[in-house]
């Protein structure tokens, strides 16, 4: 079985133009597996292998759905200034979120002036640690430059 997810957006973005992204999800596979996937609720499957394949299929679709929702969420970043404008209280050192003892869920403070900022960043903060690398990564390029004219041999030695 093959699942293909294609997201297409115009590039470079027009400053005044629409910012639509076209998304296509295509599934291809043999009749048997497609039938089992679509009819699994009506007829119980006795094969442990087929049950495992169907479970993996639905987990993959759920992952694609979550990815799609996060893409839509992140795409809204530049369209609303409150998403990228740091609140004054946070600039002065007041934390935006706190995690109570014994809980793993972040809570925002009671200040309602930065509610929209906190609402945008909470899903990013609550992201599963295993998927951070997929969403938030950076590349480091190292260049060694060479002088156009040779430097004196003993430039950095005393005397």
TrEMBL record:
GO terms for cellular component: peroxisome. PANTHER family: KICSTOR COMPLEX PROTEIN SZT2. This is RCG50435. It comes from Rattus norvegicus.
